[in-house]
Each structure stands twice: as C-alpha cells, then as structure tokens.
C-alpha cells in the first residue's frame, strides 16, 4: 500500500476550540446575566436532573455544584491562555460569545458595553499573535430569562432577540472577524433540547413538535445572521455547526440499512439540509409524521422560507468525536455512550474512559459524505479525547493516548483532503482543560494545556503544558507534514 504524504493547504486554519460557558467563569461580573448553562448542575447525572418535571431553571447551590460558574477563570486569565495558544502556533481560535454577557436578559434594547469591551479585548489579543478569531454566536448559553420567561426557542420572539444580538456582535467585530458560526451543534436538540433550545420537560421539551418549531425559528434566525453579516462586510463567512456522528448499519439486513439511512437523514443531515441548501428536504414529511404532526402544524411563514432560501450558510462546521451503529432487529442490545447520544456497541472499535467509541476512519467518511452532499467548505471545529490525565511526580503529563487520538484523526482529515474534500481548518476541542458540557466535570480533560482544578473547583488554576502541547506545535509548524513519518511514541 502506498504511504500517505500529508500536505495540508497553505492557509489551513490550525487552532483550538472552547466555549464561554465552559471556561470563562465570571458568571455574575460586569453586568453579565445568567445563562441556561449556569443553571445546569455538575456531575454525570446533570441530564437526569434537568429531565425531571420539577426542574424549572432554578439554581440550587445548597443541593448542587455548578462548575461552570468558575470555569477555569479565563475571564481574568485570557491573556495568559491566548499566549499559550500562540506558542502552540495557532492560526485560528474558535471561541463563543456569551449572549448573556452582551444582553443579560436577552430581551433588552441596548447591549452591555462591558461585555462588548471584554470580547473586543479577546479579539485584539488574538490578532496580536496573528490568530484568526472564529466566533460562535450561540454555544449552549442562551440567556436564562429567554428559557424561563419566554419558553425557549419554540417562541418566535427569540428570532428578533437573536437578530438584535447577532447584529450587535457582527457590527461591533465584523471588521476584524471574518468567520462566525450561528448555533453550536444545532442538531443535538434531537436528543437534548435543553442546551441548544432552552427546552426541558417543564416548558415543553418532551414534545418533539416543540423541538422542530424551535429548530425552524433557529433556521430563520441563522439566515438573518447571514444576511446581517453579508451586508456589513462581504468578506465575512457564516457557517452552521453540526454534531456529526458517522452512522453505520449493524449488518446488511435491509431493515438495519433502511434504519441507518433514515438515522443519517434525521440526525446528521436535516438541520444541515435546511441551513446549507436553503430549503426543507424531501424526507421532511416522513420525519414529521414519525412524531405525529405535519408541517402545517408548525408556525412557518412564506417570508420565513424565503429568508432561509436567500441566505444559506457559506460553509459547514462540525464536531466529530465518535461514530454510532444502528440496529433495529434485536440482534444486539449492548450499548455505548457518546457525545450527547449513545448507540449500539461497534465490535471493531475501542472506547475512551467515558465509553465513547474511537473511530478516525469515521471522520474521513463524514468529511467525504458532507462534501459530496453539499459542495461547500468544511471546518472541523471540534474533535478531541476526554480522558483522566495524571500529573506525575515531576509535574509532567504524558498524554500519549491523546496524541494517538489526535494523530489518527488529523490523518483522516488529510486523507479526506486527498479524496477531494475542501477542508479549511481544524480546531480540536478543549485545547485547554475546561468544564465538560456532557458531564459538568473538570476531570474529563480534553486539553493540551492542563489546568489545576478538580470537579469541586479546588486547585491553583496553574496552567501546565502536556506532552501533546509540543506534539501539536510540531504538527502546526510543519503544516501536517510530520505526520507522514511521525513515530507512535514521539
């Protein structure tokens, strides 16, 4: 077999990714309002808590721990953190803006100037090191008031609130920032509408019709953000962001093959089809009828559909951590976990410390499938390994397992580029340790920079470079060429 030579595009945007609600802290400082993330307790049972009919977006510090409130205090340490990113060689840094730091309740007429000043400083710090900012407008952190008082994204009023927020951000920073993402992992609401849509059982989260109405409202809001950006600065590119989990049929049984086709349509493609192609796909009728309603049951107007058609996104961004298997015949009931979703265990794959299946080939498949379907540039803005890192007696963290994971997935991206896919960048998740979204833990570490904090918020917050830091630095320095001869035990 011919050996691969990895040569990434000259302008390939190597970097890393974070989210405000998972690292910033400063949750009640300088006029910031509460977000839905502030009300999510830490721990592996966080989704069980919010699925309770009694959960009504109340913060109970007597009963629960809230690691997001502190994060890693990036709010006060962003200069040190960005300097470390620059030392690693980042060409881009994907981060999110906390909506409630700009509009504390979400429904105000005027923005919080302290919030705009903070993100302006982050952007300037990035540009000082020639790091391209890539900004997510909504990353699981909508203002808490919009969930509590307005019922989340099922309420059409949120379209206008988001439009005002997006206009403020884009007009404030769009002369210096050229890449924006609208809604993080928008399709994750199929399993967990709490984070992306602000929906829990007490405000209609168990009713799929509400989820699809919320999606429609987000599709319109996203298209309005595209319109605002294009009119403000023609150089700005706006992308959607999908949680992509390559899906396999368990075997060649036609029932599993059909179920897998429909799983791909319903989960991996539906939100992308609307945001990228600019219209609802042909299988929408089947999908809606699956949950007992029709398109006419949703509040969808002709101007909405025209907005979606006129302003599709410019590029696709994805998170990719694991693949999934579809089995509907009852042959196998063995389950594994995953990024906000699980599935049937794939006997050909290993799993990480949290039982997520590791499948770099699945990333190559994902990129080939997406580019073939949409013919638009793709940005891999999340990918990484959550693991329990150990600090040795000498203070070092030897995370060879993370290097192995990143190496195999970066090679998969290189292979997809060789296949013909247009991949514009790679920002692995949690380039610095932060609070996990799925478990609310610090002990589930993704970063190439270690942060001395435990799940209860105890520690010095000292930043320490892991072994993966120097390895990834070399990858960027060589624009991926080192992967052609990289030893497994670098």
From TrEMBL:
Family membership: Belongs to the glycosyl hydrolase 1 family.
GO biological process, one term: carbohydrate catabolic process
Gene Ontology CC terms: cytosol
Lineage top rank: taxon: Bacteria
Keyword set, alphabetical order: Glycosidase, Hydrolase
Higher taxonomy: Bacteria, Bacillati, Bacillota, Bacilli, Lactobacillales
GO MF annotations in UniProt: beta-glucosidase activity
InterPro entries given in the database record: GH, GH_1_N_CS, Glyco_hydro_1, Glyco_hydro_1_AS
Protein name: 6-phospho-beta-glucosidase
Keyword presence, Hydrolase: yes
Name of one Pfam family that matches: Glyco_hydro_1
Residues annotated as catalytic: 382 (nucleophile)
């Amino acid at each position: 077999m011919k050996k691969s030579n990895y040569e990434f595009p000259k302008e390939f945007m190597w970097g890393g990714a974070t989210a405000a609600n998972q690292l910033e802290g400063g949750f009640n400082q300088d006029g910031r309002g509460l977000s839905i993330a502030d009300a999510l307790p830490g721990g592996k049972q966080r989704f069980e808590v919010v699925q309770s009919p009694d959960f009504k977006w109340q913060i109970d510090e007597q009963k629960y721990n809230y690691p997001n409130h502190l994060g890693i205090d990036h709010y006060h340490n962003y200069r040190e953190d960005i300097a470390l990113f620059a030392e690693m060689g980042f060409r881009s840094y994907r981060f999110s803006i906390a909506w409630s730091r700009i509009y504390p309740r979400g429904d105000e007429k005027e923005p919080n100037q302290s919030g705009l000043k903070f993100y302006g400083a982050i952007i300037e710090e990035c540009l000082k090191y020639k790091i391209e900012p890539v900004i997510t407008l909504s990353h699981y952190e909508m203002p808490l008031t919009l969930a509590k008082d307005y019922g989340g994204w099922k309420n059409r009023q949120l379209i206008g609130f988001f439009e005002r927020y997006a206009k403020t951000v884009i007009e404030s920073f769009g002369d210096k920032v050229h890449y924006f993402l609208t809604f993080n992992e928008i399709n994750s609401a199929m399993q967990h509408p709490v984070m992306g849509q602000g929906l829990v059982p007490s405000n209609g989260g168990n009713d799929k019709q509400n989820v699809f109405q919320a999606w429609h409202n987000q599709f319109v809001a996203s298209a309005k953000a595209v319109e605002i950006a294009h009119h403000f600065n023609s150089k700005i590119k706006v992308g959607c962001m999908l949680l992509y989990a390559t899906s396999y049929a368990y075997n060649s049984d036609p029932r599993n093959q059909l179920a897998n086709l429909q799983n791909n349509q319903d989960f991996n493609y539906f939100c992308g089809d609307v945001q990228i192609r600019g219209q609802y796909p042909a299988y929408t009728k089947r999908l809606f009828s699956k949950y007992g309603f029709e398109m006419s049951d949703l509040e969808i107007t002709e101007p909405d559909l025209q907005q979606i058609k006129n302003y599709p996104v410019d590029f696709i961004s994805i998170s990719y951590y694991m693949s999934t298997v579809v089995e509907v015949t009852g042959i196998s009931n063995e389950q594994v976990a995953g990024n906000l979703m699980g599935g049937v265990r794939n006997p050909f794959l290993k799993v990480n410390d949290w039982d997520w299946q590791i499948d770099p080939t699945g990333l190559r498949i994902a990129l080939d499938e997406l580019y073939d379907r949409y013919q638009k540039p793709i940005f891999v803005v999340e990918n990484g390994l959550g693991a329990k890192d150990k600090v040795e007696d000498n203070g070092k963290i030897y995370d060879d397992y993370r290097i192995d994971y990143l190496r195999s997935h970066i090679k998969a991206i290189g292979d997809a580029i060789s296949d013909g896919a247009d991949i514009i960048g790679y920002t692995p998740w949690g380039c610095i340790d932060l609070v996990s979204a799925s478990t609310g833990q610090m002990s589930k570490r993704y970063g190439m920079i270690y942060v001395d904090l435990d799940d209860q918020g105890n520690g010095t917050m000292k930043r320490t470079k892991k072994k993966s830091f120097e390895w990834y630095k070399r990858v960027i320095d060589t624009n991926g060429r080192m992967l052609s001869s990289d030893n497994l035990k670098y």
